[in-house]
Amino acid sequence: MSVQDPATEAARLLSQIRQMTARVDELLVQLRDAGMSWADLAALIDPDDPPARSSAQRRIDSARRRLANRPD
Of 1, 49, 54, 64, which residue is most buried, by most CB within 10 angstroms? Predict the structure, then answer.
């Protein structure tokens, strides 16, 4: 296995994070649109310390904006 230089590895990992974040955004919006409660969404966002409803709402609203502004 070859060792990647730190910049290449960082770029690869950041790309993966962006891809996973986009997918999580899609799933959270789908779950809320399907009727999942804010409490259940908050528990998904952080099972160890679920955020308040307002924080969960902001997370979903931000996800909707990111999805709406995403290039095709």
Answer: 64
